[in-house]
Amino acid sequence: MFGRLFANVSQRVPSLLERVSQIMKPQVVFVLGGPGAGKGTQCSKIVESYNYTHLSAGDLLRAERAREGSEDRHVIETCIKEGKIVPVDITINLLRKAMEETMQQDEKKFRFLIDGFPRNEDNLQGWTRVMDGKADVKFVLFFDCGNEVCINRCIERGKSSGRIDDNWESLEKRIQTYLQSTRPIIELYEKHGKVRTIDASRSVDEVFADVKAVLDKEG
Ligand code: UDP
Ligand code: MG
């Protein structure tokens, strides 16, 4: 769906208006992969060298859960602990607000890494409903990593992360949710030729070398 939009634009010289609206329109890379695949770590490294703003859906939800007066605290808390996916209305509003605030502060910051979203069909529908035509999804950066490695990394992270979901009980559920709900979303984008797969089971620097190769080629 997004590919078609690009194809039309690139076949001829775009008008000034098209070029301006293209510049201003948020350019999005979805960053997906299992829990502990290294999405957050790699996004932090990307931000150091490339002109992207990193928005972690999970971090936004955790901040909203901690926000005094938030009506969604309870549902967010329960979903995170149970490895379930928060209803998209909550997540998409947080993402939209974060994107708007970033672009309001600096209009040149229109390139976003959206980390840990969309995680299921509901997320994807919410994104399409709210953002279709307003943002371009360039591609999905997929950190591919075996479940065992993912679990071990999260257990290790749990020793210091303070996260309520970096424990065996939550992790089992998170892996299930990932396999049942998120993998089909990645496969959907794959069908549209939109997935850039990185072997994420290696060291941070080895993985980042591959990430760089993708970004240097496609921005
Ligand atoms: N989550 C969600 N929707 C999102 C992103 C995260 O519901 O779009 C919830 C979900 O319960 C998930 C948890 O937040 O298990 C932690 O997500 P995060 O991306 O921080 O975990 P990671 O995959 O990076 O380990
Ligand atoms: Mg993360």
Please tell me about this protein's structure.
This protein is of the alpha/beta class and 219 residues long. It has a single domain (26-211), classed as Rossmann fold (3-Layer(aba) Sandwich). It is 60% helix and 14% strand. It has 10 helices and 5 strands. It has helices spanning 2-10, 16-24, 39-49, 57-66, 73-82, 88-105, 121-131, 147-161, 168-191, 204-218; strands at 27-33, 53-56, 111-115, 136-144, 195-199. The chain has a 5-stranded parallel beta sheet with strand order 2-3-1-4-5, with helices on both faces. Helix 8 (147-161) packs across helix 9. The longest helix has 24 residues, at 168-191. Residues 1-9 have low confidence and may be disordered. Uridine-5'-diphosphate binds at residues 35-36, 39-40, 57-58, 61, 79-80, 83-86, 91, 116-117, 119, 123, 165, 174.
